[in-house]
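Batch manifest, entry 17 of 40.
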Amino acid sequence: GWNRDTPRKYLNRYFPQWDLLICAIGSVAPVGHWSEVTSEAWAESVRVNCILPIQLLRECWHNHKPGASVCFLAGANPNRAGPNYSAYYTGKMALLKAIETIDAETPDAKFFALAPGIVFTKIHQPTYDSGIPNPGLEERKAKGGTPIPKIYERLKWCISQPKDVVGGRNICVSDDVERYMLHPWNWTDATFKLRRME
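Output type: structure tokens
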């Protein structure tokens, strides 16, 4: 597939026909109090975390196959405030609402977000560069991040589910989805829309 090292003008060349699109674009920068980071940096973060993923989807949408799955990676838990990450949280929350709405508008494909938990990649570098302590991140680092195989298994589960189960929803890797697989009537009580269940 297409990635950041491929010139964007070649995007369609790498998507002649597709039935799965995984969009993992995101940035936590700028890290800091909302009033102290620049307006430009704050707005750019919202663009990168919400607008850019939708723009890239639009550029390759005409090549999708009927029944395609589109997975966006969600950010941290949207049920909690994220001090020093206001732009990131705002962008990711807007993305989740866009996913919910786009899924409702598009009957021939399913759109969902996958919240992987904390994975120790370069996305955390702006936090370290800011010098602002993040005790939760450090605590999780000591325990280890979410294993990639666990994320992959949950992704496969999402792809295998019908649109009415995962479409427009934010599925957390730590969700107890097996409970809903065994007892499908529980889906009426699930909080998978904008809220994730842990």
